[in-house]
Amino acid sequence: MESTSTDRPERDASAGESLPAAAHAEVLIVTAVAAERDAVLRGLRGDRRFHVIAAGAGTAAAAAGTAAALAAGSYGWAVSAGIGGGFPGRAPVGSLVVASEMLDAALGAETPEGFRSAAELGFGSVSVPAPGGTVQALAAALAAAGLPVSTGTVLTVSTATGTAGTAAALAARHPQAAAEAMEGHGVAVAAQRLGIAALELRAISNPVGPRDRAAWKINEALDALSAAAAILVEVL
């Protein structure tokens, strides 16, 4: 699916931050793997405003793939989409999460007092906020379609959480966290550098915590991702 748009959103070069995109702008959706890409494409039903790529797993692959695609096209939105882990009590398995911010939870340093983020160390922001009005509009549209959804911080991690201790530490450090995945912040930073608005949409396949691969609901999460993509067409 190729993009055909000729207009980008206006940019605030002094702030370097994304501005809200125009309605009906071209949309780049970035997934990690082919199964997520295919699930999104099923939901889009051939809408030619949307270009979907599988850029690879992890922040670096997501950022590089997003930057290359944005530079080669003309987009008003960049969306990180895929499955992920949900924090118990915030995002149950089978539900959807629309990120209020995309936050790199791994970038920082260990200290005797505990983890300190790169922002705390004075190395710049580790968070990219999503446009609040669009986040709420998308969440409301998903809920109206009967899809369970929550909003909150989506953490970008380099190592998927696999213990109760790590899950508790992340939840304490980021009390607004609803989900974790491995690509959102990379997509958002690449978009932000070009003045393009960014979103992250996650379908929850497993709880954040002890790793129990046999209990993951990947197929169900992919189905939820397809359903969410169909709603995304209506909102963006």
What does this molecule look like?
With 236 residues, the protein is an alpha/beta fold. The chain has helices at 34-44, 59-72, 132-144, 164-173, 184-193, 218-235, and strands at 27-31, 50-54, 77-86, 96-104, 108-111, 114-117, 127-129, 149-156, 177-181, 197-207. It is globular and about 50 Å long. It starts with 26 loop residues before the first strand and ends with a helix. The model is unreliable at 1-19 (pLDDT under 50).
Short description:
It is built from six helices and ten strands; from the N terminus they run E-H-E-H-E-E-E-E-E-H-E-H-E-H-E-H. The protein is α/β, with parallel strands linked by helices.
- Rounded to the nearest angstrom, the radius of gyration is 17 Å
Count of alpha/pi helices: 6
Rounded average pLDDT = 90
Shape: globular
Q: Name the helix and strand elements from N-terminus to C-terminus, one letter apiece.
A: EHEHEEEEEHEHEHEH
Task: Please specify the SSE layout and strand pairing.
Elements: E1 27-31, H1 34-44, E2 50-54, H2 59-72, E3 77-86, E4 96-104, E5 108-111, E6 114-117, E7 127-129, H3 132-144, E8 149-156, H4 164-173, E9 177-181, H5 184-193, E10 197-207, H6 218-235
Parallel strand pairs: 1-2, 1-3, 3-10, 4-8, 8-9
Antiparallel strand pairs: 3-9, 4-7, 4-10, 5-6
Quick tags:
single chain, 236 residues, alpha/beta, two-stranded antiparallel ribbon, 6 helices, 32% helix, 27% strand, globular, disordered N terminus
